[in-house]
Design goal:
The structure is a homodimer of 359-residue chains.
Chain A (H helix, E strand, L loop, with lengths): L31 H8 L3 H9 L6 H13 L6 H7 L6 E6 L5 H15 L4 E6 L4 H13 L4 E4 L10 H5 L4 E4 L9 E5 L1 H14 L5 E4 L6 H16 L9 E2 L8 H9 L7 E4 L2 H11 L7 E5 L11 E4 L2 H17 L7 E4 L2 E3 L12
Parallel strand pairs in A: 1-2, 1-3, 3-4, 4-5, 5-11, 6-7, 6-8, 8-9, 9-10
Antiparallel strand pairs in A: 10-12
Helix pairs in contact in A: 1-2, 1-3, 5-12, 8-9, 10-11
The first copy, chain A, binds a DNA duplex (30 and 30 nucleotides) through helix 2 and helix 4.
Amino acid sequence: MIDPLVSSAAEAVPDATARPIPTAQAQSRATLADVGRLAGVSPKTVSRVVLGSSNVTQETREKVLAAARALRFRPNHLARNLRHGSVTNTVAFVIGDLTNPFYFLVAAGIERELAQHGLMMILAATDDDPASEERVVETLLKQRVRALLMVPIASDQAYLEGERQLGTPVVCIDRPAHNLIADSVVLENFEGTAEAVRGLIRAGHRRIAFVCSPASLYTHQERLRGYRQALREAGILDPSPWERLEDADGPTAEDSVRDLLAMSEPPTAIVAGNNRASSGVVRALGNQFEKVAFIGFDDFELADAAGISVIAYDPAELGRQAARLVVARLDDPIGPPQQIEIPTRLIQRGSGELVVPLD
Amino acid sequence: MIDPLVSSAAEAVPDATARPIPTAQAQSRATLADVGRLAGVSPKTVSRVVLGSSNVTQETREKVLAAARALRFRPNHLARNLRHGSVTNTVAFVIGDLTNPFYFLVAAGIERELAQHGLMMILAATDDDPASEERVVETLLKQRVRALLMVPIASDQAYLEGERQLGTPVVCIDRPAHNLIADSVVLENFEGTAEAVRGLIRAGHRRIAFVCSPASLYTHQERLRGYRQALREAGILDPSPWERLEDADGPTAEDSVRDLLAMSEPPTAIVAGNNRASSGVVRALGNQFEKVAFIGFDDFELADAAGISVIAYDPAELGRQAARLVVARLDDPIGPPQQIEIPTRLIQRGSGELVVPLD
DNA sequence: ATACTCAATGTCAGCGTTGACATGAATTGT
DNA sequence: ACAATTCATGTCAACGCTGACATTGAGTAT
């Protein structure tokens, strides 16, 4: 294991000639006591200076500050936090898949909002493995994180109930928790998708496909509901031929689109349920939106340059709101759980609405 | 300020009828002593069980584990770490701009590699503000992070020298540190760019532009050097008319490209120095690579679908290597500083090499 | 039977900090 | 001039944990 405190065996060699360049630690970190000794005051007085208490003479304060600077003193927050009931100022954000740019934008929003409240963000990934979720969370709780922000992966978050009762706020992002009273921030999945599909219908489309995977996700189910709802309103009661809801291990969105286009009555428009599906659709269609209209859920880099219409939202706003919920919950642990919906809006760039359907 | 320990004023109201739904913390967290009391053993024995010491009867162990489970005991790592010399298992990654997707991918690589060594990643942003770098780092050091990973923003990291001597590894990412002996992981900026430009020259291009900002960055300077080197090899000694190295507040890459195209002798090929510049170029050119060839530094989502050639590398690998340096340095604090170069490779997708120059 | 080993458990102190409380000196009021 | 107040500073204990060391009792060797 890693242990930097184990001094190297250098002293065993009386004359280490081939000694490498940088030096290891000579002295250890200065403590309040060290500073106090140098300044000729008690550790407590140093503490007062560090904490900015007013009950210190200007003269003493300067002496102490000089000593602190000389010794490169840096207060030990571990000790401080222990003393104060093990309350830290780190908030954990537990993500499934770190490589999804979506979550990083969320993380950016969280980081920024938390920083404004003196809180730091610790990032932990579960690699989309439900089993590792509890393990990761457990590790974080041992570190006494102040609150937990998470994109729930496991099918059950009941294991957090005890912790919640102990006062650790839990805020779920993108999907609600299962079997746990927790605040959550989600997208306007249903309405956003329904509105986009309604737009396609208004443009004359009837055969509208929906491509998405994995189908089991809360977000995708909501979007699917929105899709179906809009079609139902238009009198299309069975959209199933155009639904492609493959699961993670099945065919990719790219395959699904090729499959759709090969149908005897191919769809005239495609809606992608998430940004990964969007990538697949774009690859399969190769920018030929004269043939098939396309709207993706979730904006992406250069979608504007490519003229692709999307159901967009602000991922950073998701993070910001979640962080705000954390802060609010820390301020007031009591109070009914909240669910915030982040609005989506259709950005029309040509791929979805300017198309004249073939039939 | 935030303080969840402040109990609500509920007890002042004898009969709180309009009480909200969830409950606040009833009891506090169990400690080793609590578990010991319940199991009828000393705290030390509980500690032994928790740490997995062998010198405990099977019977005692089970009693203790049962008690721990009953009390939902969770070891306090703050106390543990304090006891052990304030050595934590969190490593900080200090980034300038969180919204740059490049850094996400780096962070993902870091997180993954660190996790394999039982280390956690704490993310902190400086918002590309050199002045806030030291402040942010200082805060992190108070938390006693085990090591520091950073993308240096400030023009001087000498303030970390003391900390380095105390044994905190510092690894710089993407650019080397200034005035500080530290390990670093950088890209093959010079060679990667030179090779790409050589390719354009081989394809017959002579008027090759370089668009990038801000010009002051180490990475961009290296890339610029590579660009000039390749041109020099081809006998083009003064590329300055085609260099567009505007700084952050100046015109955007998009503007620069329009400007270039409006020249009396416009470039036949453009090289972008980073992914932001690439976006700008793509927007300005609008995919018309028949007119002007294009190669960007740094791959991006859907560059493949758009057929854009890039100088690519693996950002996650950057992170992984950096994390590995941290771990190595923790194992062996002595040893000469290392600089690792992450290889780049030219991915030809059509925008750069299949073009027939106009002249 | 006596000393000797060893395993299981306990006692204690201290990691660095700060709240509660104590002390002593200077200042104030009357 | 003397108690009352204020202010700067100090003493002490405890946050939760675990290394160093002590203790106990059972088993083993002579």
